[in-house]
Amino acid sequence: MGKLYDQIDASLQSFFEEQRLFFVATAPIDADGHINLSPKGLDTFRVLGPSKVAYLDYVGSGAETIAHLKQNRRIVMMWCAFQGPPRIVRVHGHGEVVAPPDAEYQRLRALFPETPEARAIVVVSVQRVADSCGFGVPLYEFQSQRTQLPAWVDRKGADGLKDYQAKKNAGSIDGLPAVTWLDDEV
Hints:
- By secondary structure, this protein is of the alpha+beta class.
- A hairpin with a 2-residue loop joins strand 4 (45-49) and strand 5 (52-57).
- Helix content is 25%, strand content 30%.
- It contains 4 helices and 8 strands.
- The protein has a single domain (3-178), classed as Electron Transport, Fmn-binding Protein, Chain A (Pnp Oxidase, Chain A, Roll).
- Strands 1, 2, 3, 4, 5, 6, 7 and 8 form an 8-stranded antiparallel beta sheet that branches.
- The termini are far apart.
- It has helices spanning 10-18, 64-72, 103-109, 148-168; strands spanning 3-5, 22-26, 36-40, 45-49, 52-57, 74-80, 88-98, 120-132.
- 23% of the residues are buried.
């Protein structure tokens, strides 16, 4: 049977840190809009406090999460135990996109690995934390993180990443604004 938590305690934080993968889901307000679900790997997640978490958002082929958070702030994150005892934990909350031009970005960016360069940091004010059994989640053995994203970022370089984001991340697939801060960067 699932359990609700008042906040993220040391045990939950430890569980999050042990997982090599988590998922982020968002949706636009319009019921005809596309729901987005994204896997997140690498060393991108941090617990900032008992009711606040953040993850480093790398440049990707879409920017749905950013667009949805800018529109309505709703987000859910999910971790599944693929090794050890079965468990699923979901964190529901309100997300804020912290962009590189923001002073808060530099403060938070220091909490994550220096490379690869990121597109934004998503900070989530936690509203609900719940776990469930995870009995149906298969066991998998972790081999390693993939190297393609850091290599791609290195090949693109800072200017190439900005050009890519201007072309691919300015809006969502539903036409919502997403990465809009590139012109603001100094």
